[in-house]
Amino acid sequence: MMSAGGKSDHDAYARALAVFLARAVLGLIFFMAGVHKVFVQGAIAHAEQWFLPFKDTFLPVWSLWVTGVSVPFVELVGGLLVLVGYRTRLGLSMLGAVLVLVTFGHLLHEPLYAFHEHVIPRLALALFVLGAPSAWDRWSLDAWLARRRA
């Protein structure tokens, strides 16, 4: 419904822009981290650097290898899905799982870890995009495909 002065169109544009910006920034953060970890650092080196230090905990070493090698690919794929807005909820679920894993790991070694620098900003963007009605995400691949089907 249009109100005087086109306010409804302006509000819809603002909501679409807000979701697009949050989705693009979050997607880029994870996608570029995944690109670096997969193609520059390498998934094995990533596991050795970030996950094997937890072999002094109760976690089995095999689980550290599996998780450490998998996370870069999850970030790459999940970040790309969120960035382009294709199966966004699936991508957000993947990235949310990484955030939970990172939170658990940091708390395991450092119970007072400063989450405001790393986890909280990413989580806030993810929750905003996840909580926004899908109709607000007008500039996504999912929305484009839906318009084509209609």
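The record above closes out task 2.4. Task 2.5 opens with a second protein, given below.
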Amino acid sequence: MSVINQMLIDLERRRASGEERNRIPDHVRAMPGPRSSGLDWLSPSWIGAVLAVLLLAAATAAWWWRDMLPWLPAGLSQNLVKLPPADESGSPIPGMSFDLAQAPAAKSDDPPPVSTHSVIVKAPDRAEPRSDKPSPPVVPKPAPAAPPLAPASSSAPAIAAAVPETATGITRPAPAVPPQIDRREREQTPRQRAEFEFARGASALHQGRASEARAAFEAALQIDPALHGARQALVGVLVDVRQPAEAMRVLQEGLQIAPSQSGFAMMLARLQVERGDIEGGVQTLGRSLEYAGGNADYLAFFAGLLQRQQRHADAIDLFDRALRLRPGNGIWLLGLGMSLEAGGRDAEAREAFRRARASGNLPPDLQTYADQRLR
């Protein structure tokens, strides 16, 4: 029977044709033999044992992950969510390990101490079952990949100061100190402050507050004595309030600072003449004459004062200069004729009187005087 049984088994293995099988009676069949040892692991008991081991391993891993993960730094716990290298089929390669000590330590404010010992996670050895029929490999489900840590920005400003190293060896930079901003207002120059006082006085004078205007003009001159506009305005206020002596003092100070201000000289000379000091006026105008060569009014006023002092030759010269700058002024022509007549130059005087009458700008009384001199 054993020989027949072996022959039947060989026929089934070779998948013999129907002709070969017909040679054997139908009631003759091969006796079932013992199962191959390679298929014993597919028995229900073996599968249950494997599932129990896998559940135990999963529970142990879950317990370790829950209790140990909070003690790891934030960056390291993210890097641990990685599987060991796998082969083409997806199964872990035996012998490969992950060295925890080589993982970069993440920076944090107060990181817990991290052990320097290496934690080796090895792939479990798995016995390959021998079977004529290949079994599908069990591929573990990979854990989701952790997002990569963002690299430090290269454009962040460097901070020189740093706190001492902590127990974990992590150096934390000190917070950046914001730059100090100087909020002090820019200091004004003396000229700017003087102009401010001058503008304040002009506004007060326009509103009829003479005393306030005077105080503002005086303050401006104390700050900047060379502010000539403020000086001239102050003289006008002093003349209006009938303080000519104070006005003359202010003008004399201005001429000491700036002798070229011929306008100050004319104002001072008029005040002196009004007070009866003709000689003082002549001296004032004489000192500033070199700066008033192009001022016709200055020259004619100076010529009139010299005429009152009977200095006709000097008066004729100044009247001529003024009339060259502004021809046809009847008053100046009348004054020139009077000095020419006083100097014995009658023909020239008669011509000057005639031109004065023809100018048409003489007041009625001076027009009558010119007619009398011609007769």
